[in-house]
Amino acid sequence: MTTLSTSRGHQALAVSIVFTTTATIITAVRIYTRAFLVKQMGADDYVILVSLAFSWIFFGLMVGEVYHGMGEHYTAIPASIFKAQMIYFWASIPIYQTSLISTKMSILLQYKRVFSTPRMRLACWLMIGILAVYGTWTIISAWANCVPLAKFWDPTVPGFCFDKKALWFSNSAIHITTDIAILIYPMPVLKSLHLPKRQKFALMAVFALGGFVLITSILRLSSLLTISNSNDPTYDNVGAATWSAVECNVAIICACLPGTRAFLSKLLPHIFSTRSNGYRSKTTRPSRISRGALTGDGNTQVLASVVGGREHSSEYDHDLEDLSPSGSFHSYAKEPVKESFAGIKVTTNVTQERTSHSNIVINDHLGSTKELVTKHGF
Fold this sequence. Notes:
By secondary structure, this protein is α+β, with helices and mostly antiparallel strands. The chain has 11 helices and 7 strands.
């Protein structure tokens, strides 16, 4: 088959390959960290791999679009090439939706693992359910945009199509709404932690990485308006295709970055080390914890340290832990040394012969003897 490519199409392809490759590298670092350093792969890790796979499929379809006239005016493209380009365009839409939905599902699965209070878990399950329902709709509606399907790439075929502008903008509005919900979901718990402001803001900043996805979703709207009103889809689709690739991969990058700290600590210990000689909270005092005060028996030593403080514990800083608001305790006494997130670490050591002690390196005078309890690393 004859192909046709343009400089506009190649520019879109260049942007896409940069972001897709970057997302792949960051995902590989996350998976290496989870599988070989933390040794604790979770459902969220497997789902992000699904998202990355669909991102690469989207890139492959974008290559097909570019080499079949994307970026060229419709009137300058032979009918056979135009048909092929529109088929690639049609196929890319549900693939884009699947990648984006998978990334959001991965983030929510991370949240479910990290936030352990019943109310937070219930809210997380509710969001997962909503995401599953609307995600199914967006994928099916993108695939079955026209009946019969061939009418999408051949307007002469009898049948009907959904209003593209209404469909695409309603789906985008739902995406932006869920972006906002995912962004603000952890903030009340983080705000309630009794930590110095600098440490609290550091935690909130890591969780707020999703704000970059929200920004790209909003920026994509302009290109979406252009293509939905277009009578020259091969020329006007360049912006929408480019921003769709950017959005998919920025979402993957933001979902994976928090899980890379252990790797960075190993690779660049002087920059990301879990040990430092900086500020240490004023109150550092041992306190007796009786048997049974925490779920599980044995000698439990909790060492919690904050960003910028002198930190103790395991060989690696394992990035994310089970966060609980003040006063919430969960079963963890039987587990080995665990992980930290954004420099906040809780370690648990268990023996059976001695009584329990707790050393807290957090502002004890604020009444917080334990803010973060770790079950899993991420």
